[in-house]
Amino acid sequence: MQPYELSLASAAQSIRARQLSSVELVDSVLGRIEETEPHLQAYVTVIAERARLAAHKAERAAAAGHFTGPLHGIPMGLKDLIDTEGVATTASSQVRADHRADTDSTVAAQLAEAGAVLVGKTHTHEFAYGLTTPQTRNAWGQDRVAGGSSGGSAVAVAAGAATFALGTDTGGSIRVPSALNGVVGLKPTYGLVSRHGVTSLSWSLDHVGPITRTVEDASLVLAALTGHDPRDPASLHVPPADYRLDKDQDLTGLRIGVPGNYYFDHVDPEIEAAVRQAIARLKDLGALLIDVEIPMTRYIQAIQWGLMVPEATAYHERTMRSVPELYADDVRILLEAGELMPAGDYLRAQRARTLMQQAWRDMAGAVDIIAAPTVPSTAAKAGQETVTWSDGTVESVSDSYVRLSAPANITGVPSLTLPVGHDRAGLPIGMQLIGHPLGEATLLRAGHAYERSEAPRPVAPAR
User: What is the pTM of this model?
Assistant: First the structure.
């Protein structure tokens, strides 16, 4: 096994045991980037020399018995919405091609304090406004979309071109590409992780979270990201939580809600079969399955778009007036559409969200987590615009991907996706676990138990 194939937890343990050096690990990941980038294009910017200098510094510290933190010497990628001092943050857009931050974003500073080594900035669908990340290719097939908007981060982790990465999630942008590339993605509770220094898409829906190879890795990264930040108005005042996971696979007493509506509607049969099999495995591990009915489903899409579109347009108002030609066509059209939305529609979406949050709390009160598919179909072919379901319903690829992930953004609850198999074409399938506010520890426990009951997953072939 090459160092780039190691999970974060295994790599960190090997570095602390002095069985692996940070230099060896970072060099291995940088070598993997050189191998995969020509055909995957996960990165906007690779800072190889800076990463090597940081790795040598980490190695000297380790040799002296000093470890900066739990992520000491671990190479990471950051979505190109996340400011890093001295490194371009372009949002994968010509609009911000020259942007260089004077200071680190909160999350970049937290990860550096924990010892992580930045190797580069990963591609996003322009300004995170899309679900495909068109410039990046799926790690399991170059003819397939990466998913978005954190496509570069998910592909880098899946291919071994980063040991972990950060993404952002406004309507599924961590979970969708993670599911499509066979890795783990966590959208935390709204306000748990600071967004200071992170380019916004929709401030009332935006989240920052980890993309990793395993659930245990996600727990380690999340622990480094929490803490109140007064520079983010939505940042929560909550005490530090313990996300440590043990080897106990027993889920006795855990109540898992299985949706009887919405989440299994218009879903590919192979995905439904894989997810239901994974839910059955959770039952075998001791969990109790309870049928639940998802509330207000007819309003989900309207609420998501009713909030996101006008907020995104407001954020881009100045540059849309000065340099509209620098935006990609798909993003510019959405921003222009936002200018046509009446204020009353936005206010109605806000009110509907409040009602949905209350209805969701009432529904979820009988369970600890909800288990469902992450996306209704595996990675679409590049350039594919629509999905046609068995009943003749036609849906855009982007709408299909956001459909099952948006409820967790609207309600602000945490959601974890993890791989649960592959379809006949060899493309990954993801299961989504949705929890209560600040219920990340429960999601991680359940996901970890499932993961430990399965065979270890290799890195993607990046073919």
Answer: 0.97
